[in-house]
């Protein structure tokens, strides 16, 4: 009896794995259930709440809505040389606060990037993932958004790794994940050497 049960399990386990996963052209295992779950999130976006914008690369669409989650007092650190109507160029840098997260299969929020209690991030627009570049290039200083980025405009078909404080690498974002960010654009730093030099 035990031998028959063992044989049945030995047959069914690989089949279950086969039907929930597949491989791409590079023989990388794809979690089809996770991929479908994330694609459904994008398909189910409430278009009456979220605006859509085609990505700068024309490889897909991001969805965003304006929010009021962050403390406006941080804007006092922003440059006075940038007008409220300017948006960053691809070659500009930005100062911002950000929380990055995705929804797990049970609907709970998994935060993979937090704003560290008000820590201001800085970076060049061109260095970010496609969906983030698109959002930043359409934001004005002092604006806050929540943006949903389909995996094609995020980390794509590969896992995104991070490193813990102890130096251990781990998967921070699985492949095929729909990303969500809350972004507060604090400042735009033009790609212009000497722009903020004292005169």
UniProtKB/TrEMBL annotation:
<keyword id="KW-0413">Isomerase</keyword>
<feature type="signal peptide">
    <location>
        <begin position="1"/>
        <end position="23"/>
    </location>
</feature>
<dbReference type="InterPro" id="IPR001179">
    <property type="entry name" value="PPIase_FKBP_dom"/>
</dbReference>
<keyword id="KW-0732">Signal</keyword>
<feature type="domain" description="PPIase FKBP-type">
    <location>
        <begin position="91"/>
        <end position="189"/>
    </location>
</feature>
<keyword id="KW-0697">Rotamase</keyword>
<dbReference type="InterPro" id="IPR046357">
    <property type="entry name" value="PPIase_dom_sf"/>
</dbReference>
<dbReference type="GO" id="GO:0003755">
    <property type="term" value="F:peptidyl-prolyl cis-trans isomerase activity"/>
</dbReference>
<comment type="similarity">
    <text>Belongs to the FKBP-type PPIase family.</text>
</comment>
<protein>
    <recommendedName>
        <fullName>Peptidyl-prolyl cis-trans isomerase</fullName>
        <ecNumber>5.2.1.8</ecNumber>
    </recommendedName>
</protein>
<dbReference type="Pfam" id="PF00254">
    <property type="entry name" value="FKBP_C"/>
</dbReference>
